[in-house]
Amino acid sequence: MADIGIMKKKTLSLKTPAKINLFLKVAGRRDDGYHNLETVFLPLTNIFDTIKLKIDEQEGIKITSLSEDIPCNKSNLCYKAAEQYALKIGIVPNWGIDIDKRIPVTAGMGGGSSDAAAVLIMLQNFYDNTMEEKELVSLAAKIGADVPFFLNPVPSAGYGIGDILKPVEVNCDFYVLICAPQFPVTASWAYKNMVNPCVCEKLNIDELISSLKSGEISTVLKFVKNDLAPALYNKFPILSIFRDDLIRLGAEEAEITGSGPTIFGICKDKFSAEQIAAKMAEKYGSALKLAISSVLKEPYQVGS
């Protein structure tokens, strides 16, 4: 393994957005243990972690964070991303990675995947895009199914395990109200306990994509569904109560994102989202972590 020789210290930083799955259809289990999906990813403007990458003279990969909810060791996806990048391009890593954690952990919002993608983006930036784009996407998919999306976090349709991506034009104006319960759910549990028949079985993602482009919000709302959600509602009835309250209080629609347990509400404007959030906060207090966001349409840029 060659050391290309870093001549000076440098720190890069990047905001890493959370996402919701506006629609999530599970199309069947694969031989590799993953599931084939049809989904629409929407990255969020106001809900993000910040990752700092420091290149220095000390050999190795060091993860730091003030958050007690994430591991700062080899099991962290940022560590895995950095390690695999170094192996792939044949260099000795000498990187410190600091994670300012704001995205809820194990919540179906892609926080760990987003952080890992940010590491890959910054390493590519620092090393002058040493890796070809296809190679980088392939490497990202090995780290986690959602990581490829976060390499270019714009509204996208996802296929395969979520790594086959197609940008989606969003011309609907709405706000997203995030309601994150303060308990985790693993993706493996959600997929293992998925309920059949699936709720998205007869829905065509192409109709959703077309409606997002044309701005037909009434049609879009019919697609706010998730094949993983019924198992979560059965296991955790409080999630059904949260969802029903969001709709009762004025959300246009509400559903679990990803493997949960976070629930998002689609709100017609920011004022409505704020009003609903205030009422949810009054009722549930610290049991829910609440946040309001618009949809991110242009990725954040690497800073120094």
Give the SSE layout.
Elements: E1 10-29, E2 35-55, E3 60-65, H1 77-89, E4 94-100, H2 111-126, H3 133-143, H4 147-151, E5 156-159, E6 164-167, E7 175-181, H5 187-192, H6 205-214, H7 217-222, H8 229-235, H9 237-248, E8 253-256, E9 263-267, H10 270-284, E10 288-293
Parallel strand pairs: 3-4
Antiparallel strand pairs: 1-2, 2-4, 2-5, 5-6, 7-9, 7-10, 8-9
Q: In words, what does this structure look like?
A:
The chain folds into 2 domains: 10-167, Ribosomal Protein S5, domain 2, CATH 3.30.230; 175-293, 2-Layer Sandwich (Alpha-Beta Plaits), CATH 3.30.70. A hairpin with a 6-residue loop joins strand 8 (253-256) and strand 9. Strands 1, 2, 3, 4, 5 and 6 form a 6-stranded mixed beta sheet that branches. It starts with 9 loop residues before the first strand and ends in an 11-residue tail after the last strand. By secondary structure, it is α+β, with helices and mostly antiparallel strands. Residues 1-8 have low confidence and may be disordered. Helices cover 33% and strands 28% of the residues. It is globular, with a radius of gyration of 19 Å.
- The dominant shape is globular
CATH class of the largest domain: Alpha Beta
Question: Tell me about the biggest sheet?
Answer: 6 strands, mixed
Name given to the CATH architecture of the largest domain: 2-Layer Sandwich
Q: Residue-averaged pLDDT, rounded? A: 94
